[in-house]
Amino acid sequence: MRRPPRDRRSAERRRGKGRHDPAGVPEHPGRAAVNNNALVAALGSDAVAAVHGYRVAVVDEARVRGLTLRPARTSVTTDPIDIRLVFADGPGGALTGQVLTWGPQRGWALARAAADPSPRYLAGPLARPLDLVPTAVDVLDRVTGGRRGSTVPPLQVELDDDSAAVRRLLRFASARRDRSSDALDLIA
Predict the structure, then answer these.
(1) Per the domain annotation, does 17 fall within a domain?
(2) Which residues face 100 on adjacent strands?
(3) Per-residue pLDDT tens for 52-72?
(4) Residue 13 forms part of a structural domain
(5) Which SS3 state, helix, strand or coil, does residue 160 take?
(6) How many domains does the chain have?
C-alpha cells in the first residue's frame, strides 16, 4: 500500500518555516511586539537574570576590545529588562558618550546621546526574532565597525516567536549562574 505524498507546506510549518513571510513580517497582524512584561511572562524569573547576563556579556566583550561601557543613568521607572550602557572611553574615543540600549521589542540601538531622537537600530525593519538577540561579539562588531544600523526599528517582530532567540537569551542566565558558582568554588 502506497502512502499519499506529504504536503510540503505542512512539513515546513512543523519545522517552524512559514511562520514569517519573506518580508519578515509575522503572520499575526494585530499582535503587539513582545514588551518587557510579555518577556517576563514568557521566561518567568529567569528573564531578569538572562538580561543581566546578556548585559554582562556585552560589557565583558567591550572590555576585551579596550572599550569601557558603564551603566547609563536611569530613573526609578526604568525597567530591569532594559539595558542602557554608555561608552566611557576607548581607542580613539569615537564612541565616548554614545548610549547603547537593548530591549525585547527593538533589540540593540546606538544613540549619540541619551536624548538622541534618532538612534540607530542594529536590527533593521526586516529583522527576525534572532536578530533581536545577537551575540555579544556581534553587537560589538556592529557598533565598532562601519555598519551602525538602521534608523527604522524592527517592525512587527516578536522575540518569543523563535525558540532559538529565547534559548540564546536564556543561555545568558545560565552562564551567569555558572560564573557565580565558579566564584563560589574559588571562595570555598
Answers:
(1) no
(2) 85, 110
(3) 999 999 999 999 999 999 998
(4) no
(5) helix
(6) 1
